[in-house]
Amino acid sequence: MKVMDFKVLLEPDQSGGYVAVCPSLPGCYTQGETVEEALANAREAIELVLEDMHEHGEPAPDPSGVLIGSVVVTR
Fold first, then answer.
1. 47 CB-side CA count, 13 A
2. Tally of CB atoms within 10 A around 63
3. How far is it between the farthest Cα atoms of the chain?
4. pTM (2 decimals)?
5. Is domain 9-65 annotated with CATH 3.30.160.250?
6. I need a labelling partner for 68 at 20 to 30 A (CA). Which of 7, 10, 23, 75 fits?
7. Each residue of 20-74: pLDDT tens digit?
8. What is the 3-state secondary structure (H, E, C) of 6-63?
9. What is the predicted pLDDT for the residue at 57?
10. Please, are residues 29 and 7 in contact by the beta-carbon 8 Å criterion?
């Protein structure tokens, strides 16, 4: 079994909770009321996308190419 480390971006939702997006898998996003729930839902969404890709003979993307950075802007 191969271990893959997918990065997930979390952003507060205006209506409450958090939106989770996996940049390595376009269209793979979910939400949750808490950070923990959003991450658990993201794991499930990622697993479902990977399963679908496997069933269609598509290779899984290499998540190591996604980098997380921070940009500070002063105004």
1. 7
2. 15
3. 49
4. 0.89
5. yes
6. 75
7. 999 999 999 999 999 999 999 999 999 999 999 999 999 999 999 999 999 999 9
8. CCCEEEECCCCCEEEECCCCCCCEEEECCHHHHHHHHHHHHHHHHHHHHHCCCCCCCH
9. 97
10. no
Rounded Cα gap, residues 71 and 49, in angstroms = 30
The structure tokens listed for 56 are 């269609």
Question: Both tokens of residue 15?
Answer: 């209506």
Burial class (CB in 10 A: 0-12, 13-18, 19+), 17: middle
Query: Measured between alpha carbons, how far is 65 from 6 in angstroms, rounded to an integer?
Result: 10
